[in-house]
Every structure is written in structure tokens, then in C-alpha cells.
């Protein structure tokens, strides 16, 4: 347990209905007693009240009344940090919250460092590292998907999967070690094949988690999207509709700039990070808006291309060049200006796309001018990246870079195990790499290798010598 008592404002520092000052640590109740006045004749002592109760009263600093408050009492280990915790709900003005915090600090608490409450929850064993990281992600979540994913991780979904994997691996390490120790009683006859099969299963599982982490990244950070289209196709108009702003200058003269600009938009709960929008926004110069070379570059690190084709004109060589770029990426083709008489129809567009070697590309008729067709666009994006909305529910997404790194390391070790088995190496080779995989996975949960391994080996396999 940490000895000192920490305090911080746990709500945003902006004017609001209420603000919360949180105190955690051994002296939390004692400090609360000193600054709390129940306002009743018989002064109530918070330290004598039962846990998980709320008390009305005032925060006082000596004779000065600071604020009228509700105080929540949570005795450890049944609190967020697993320590004694007091939460003071005061009025939300920045000044009021700050004064309450100052009073708490004056009476013996130390100002908490960023993330220190969560760190304590981890150090006190209430949550694992994947959950601690999820707390940060929940706070930072920018869209519904990201939030749901983080909440799930917070509930321990990642932990469960990783723990199950580790348990399986550990069992085999223990088996190998015991057999090597006691060859008379434990045979390794036919064992490499058996291990090989299990190893394949673990590898697949890690691969699934890695694949999902790509989706996870997209979920939390957004889908990097580039809008392509020949000059005047309606890119800025689309951008305006998506961002809901009139910032772009919509004009018949095309333009370009070297600056790149990213804009985030929320499309039906999914975040699109529109990249290279400067080229679309800046339209003063009489130059092609996004040159082909430039397009190629922005396409390279995009997750999605939105190709805007103009239904009111013929497809030209610009369109053809863009179609070339579509082959490499996930793309949606938007046939714009459908409010006008069609020169280019859906059918002719499909044909040209097919000629260019682009197949399985959806065509969505839209009118950027009349704000039509965007719902369908949003649905298609969701389908494309998350297989519709539902599949999300049974997936575990590892989105954190640190966790992903550990997964990659585990994967490498498991590949190594497979190779050693193939090559007919002695069993102790397997256990070295299995151990590396076990450790790498443990890092996701913030566990360093320790007693659990030792205990496991000897409790399960010791043959009584
Ligand atoms: P960009 O060069 O691709 O960025 O194209 P703009 O967005 O600047 O649009 C070029 C011209 O087409 C402007 O005059 C827009 O008002 C017009 N435009 C864009 N979208 C539509 C649409 O859906 N319908 C019609 N009728 N005009 C549009």
C-alpha cells in the first residue's frame, strides 16, 4: 500500500454543474473529518460513517465556509484505487473546485500526479495494466466505437484472452520442465507433435488479436481517408458536407498547396481523418487541386479512398489515373451531382472501373450540393471496416501500441517454437521460446515473470521427490 494520501480534481477544469475532488489514501477520512462540517447541531464525523454512503454538508477551512457539498465515502478495498477514498462533490465553478482542493491539500494530502489514482488501482492489484490503459482510452475516446472498445477492455476482456493463452503456454512449459527433470516418470514420447498443434492454435489466436488491433487502431484513431477526384468533381463540396462547415471556398477554379491538413469528422459514430485536405481547401490557384503525384503520396498511408466522380461530365484521363490508385486500397466511389442530368451513369462508371482493373468497388450516388446519399456512405464505411455494427460485440481489440508490441513479440516466439518442433530440436528449446511468449503476453497485463510460474511448476508437476 502507498503510505501518502493524494488528492486531485477529477472532473474537467471548466465551469460545470458539479466538480469532484477525490482523495485517496490512508488518511483520506481523517483529512475529510477536519474540513467537513455537517451543519447540524451534533457534528457528524465522516470517519465514523459506514462505507458507500453520501453525506450532505460544508467544506470549511477553519472558520471559512468554502462550499456546500455532498461527500461520498468509500472504504478500501471497495474503491477505485482499493484505498480509502473520499469524493467531494462541490459546485462546479473552477474557483470553487480549486478552493476545495487547496483546503484538502492544506490538511495533509499531496497533489496527485497525472494518472496516479489509476496507477494505485494497478499497484494495489485491483486492475491489470491492460485495464489501466483502457481507463485512459475511455477518457480519450473520440467516438462510440472507441469508447465501447475501451470499456470492454476495462471490464477485463483483453485480460481474459491473454490469461487463457498464458495459462495454456505455462502448462506446457511446466510439463516439459518436469519431464526433463524426471524422465523416468514423465515421457515426452510423441509430445512435440502434440505441442505443435497447440502452438498453432496459440499462434492463430495471437494473429487474430493482431489483426483486430488494426481495426482497433482505426476505431480509436479514425480511418485515414483521402478524397480524390478530378478538378470540379465536387471534393470541396463533399468536404464541406462532411465537416458541416463552409470553410472551403467552393469555386470553379481549381487550386493546390503544399501544406497538408487533417480534419476529423464523425460519420455515424465512426471517425474519418480526412487527410491532405489543404489541397482541397485551397482553391485560389489555377492548378489541378491534387496532382497525381501528390495523390499517390496521400493514398499511400490512407486506409480509405473516397473517389468523387462527376456524373455531369464525361470521365476523362484524370478519372482514369485515379482509378489506377484505387486498386491498392479500400475505396468507395461516389458518383456526385446526381441532381443534374447524367452524362456519366453508374453503369458506364462500373464499366470503366472494371476496365481499369478495379472490381468489388461500391458506387454510391450522392449530391454534395443537396446533401444526399451520405447515410449510405456512412453505412458502407462501417460495413467495410467493422463488418457492420454487430460483429464488434464479440471481438477483443488491442489498440494500445505497447500492448501490440508485446503481442508481436509473443508471435515471434511462437513462430520460433513451431520451427524448433519442425527441426526436431530437443525439448528444452521449446520451453525457452514458450517462456519468451509467456513473458511477452504477461507484459500486456503488466505482470513480470515471478512466483506464479515457479508455483505452477511445482504444484502441478512435482512428483514428490
Ligand atoms: P472540387 O474541385 O472537386 O473541389 O469541386 P467543388 O466542390 O469546388 O465543386 C465544383 C463545382 O461543382 C461547384 O460549382 C459546386 O457548387 C458544384 N457542385 C459540387 N457538388 C455538386 C452537386 O452535387 N450538384 C451540383 N449540381 N453541383 C455540385
Automatic annotation (TrEMBL):
Annotated Gene Ontology cellular component terms: cytosol
The keyword Lipid biosynthesis is assigned to this record: no
Biological-process GO terms, alphabetical: tRNA methylation; tRNA wobble uridine modification
Domain TrmE-type G: 222-386
UniProt keyword terms in alphabetical order: Cytoplasm, GTP-binding, Hydrolase, Magnesium, Metal-binding, Nucleotide-binding, Potassium, tRNA processing
Known function: Exhibits a very high intrinsic GTPase hydrolysis rate. Involved in the addition of a carboxymethylaminomethyl (cmnm) group at the wobble position (U34) of certain tRNAs, forming tRNA-cmnm(5)s(2)U34.
Protein name per its UniProtKB record: tRNA modification GTPase MnmE
Species of origin: Fusicatenibacter faecihominis
Gene giving rise to this polypeptide: mnmE
Amino acid at each position: 500500500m502507498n503510505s501518502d494520501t493524494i488528492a486531485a480534481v477529477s472532473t474537467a477544469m471548466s465551469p460545470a454543474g458539479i466538480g469532484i475532488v477525490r482523495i485517496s489514501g490512508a488518511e483520506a477520512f481523517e483529512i475529510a473529518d477536519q474540513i467537513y462540517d455537517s451543519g447540524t447541531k451534533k457534528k457528524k464525523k465522516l470517519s465514523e460513517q459506514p462505507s458507500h454512503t453520501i453525506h450532505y454538508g460544508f467544506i470549511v477551512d477553519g472558520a471559512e465556509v468554502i462550499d456546500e457539498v455532498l461527500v461520498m465515502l468509500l472504504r478500501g478495498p471497495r474503491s477505485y484505487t482499493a484505498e480509502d477514498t473520499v469524493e467531494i462533490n462541490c459546485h462546479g465553478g473552477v474557483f470553487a473546485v480549486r478552493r476545495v482542493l487547496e483546503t484538502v491539500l492544506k490538511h495533509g494530502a499531496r497533489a496527485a500526479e497525472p494518472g496516479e489514482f489509476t496507477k494505485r488501482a494497478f499497484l494495489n492489484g485491483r486492475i491489470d495494466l491492460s485495464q489501466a490503459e483502457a481507463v485512459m482510452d475511455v477518457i480519450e475516446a473520440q467516438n462510440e466505437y472507441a469508447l465501447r472498445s475501451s470499456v470492454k477492455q476495462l471490464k477485463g476482456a483483453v485480460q481474459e484472452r491473454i490469461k487463457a493463452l498464458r495459462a495454456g503456454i505455462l502448462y506446457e512449459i511446466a510439463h516439459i520442465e518436469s519431464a526433463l527433470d524426471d524422465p523416468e516418470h514423465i515421457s515426452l514420447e510423441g509430445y512435440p507433435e502434440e505441442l505443435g498443434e497447440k502452438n498453432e492454435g496459440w499462434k492463430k489466436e495471437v494473429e487474430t488479436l493482431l489483426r483486430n488491433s488494426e481495426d482497433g487502431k482505426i476505431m480509436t484513431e479514425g480511418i485515414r481517408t483521402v478524397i480524390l477526384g478530378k478538378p470540379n468533381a465536387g471534393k470541396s463540396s463533399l468536404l464541406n458536407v462532411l465537416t458541416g462547415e463552409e470553410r472551403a471556398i467552393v469555386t470553379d477554379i481549381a487550386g493546390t498547396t503544399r501544406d497538408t491538413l487533417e480534419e476529423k469528422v464523425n460519420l455515424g459514430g465512426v471517425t474519418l481523418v480526412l487527410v491532405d485536405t489543404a489541397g482541397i481547401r485551397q482553391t485560389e490557384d489555377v492548378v489541378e487541386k491534387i496532382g497525381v503525384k501528390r495523390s499517390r503520396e496521400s493514398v499511400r498511408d490512407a486506409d480509405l479512398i473516397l473517389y468523387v466522380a462527376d456524373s455531369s461530365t464525361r470521365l476523362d484521363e484524370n478519372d482514369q489515373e485515379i482509378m489506377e490508385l484505387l486498386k491498392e486500397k479500400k475505396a468507395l466511389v461516389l458518383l456526385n451531382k446526381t441532381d443534374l442530368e447524367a452524362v456519366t451513369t453508374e453503369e458506364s462508371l462500373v464499366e470503366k472501373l472494371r476496365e481499369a482493373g478495379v472490381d468489388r468497388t461500391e458506387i454510391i450516388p450522392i449530391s454534395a450540393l443537396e446533401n444526399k446519399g451520405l447515410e449510405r456512405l456512412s453505412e458502407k464505411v462501417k460495413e467495410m471496416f467493422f463488418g457492420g455494427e454487430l460483429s464488434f460485440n464479440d471481438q477483443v481489440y488491442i489498440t494500445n501500441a505497447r500492448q501490440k508490441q508485446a503481442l508481436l513479440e509473443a508471435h515471434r516466439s511462437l513462430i520460433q517454437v513451431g520451427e524448433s518442433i519442425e527441426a526436431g530440436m530437443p525439448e528444452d528449446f521449446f520451453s525457452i521460446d514458450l517462456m519468451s511468449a509467456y513473458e511477452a503476453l504477461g507484459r500486456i497485463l503488466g505482470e513480470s515473470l515471478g512466483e506464479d510460474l515457479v508455483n505452477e511448476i511445482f504444484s502441478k508437476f512435482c512428483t514428490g521427490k
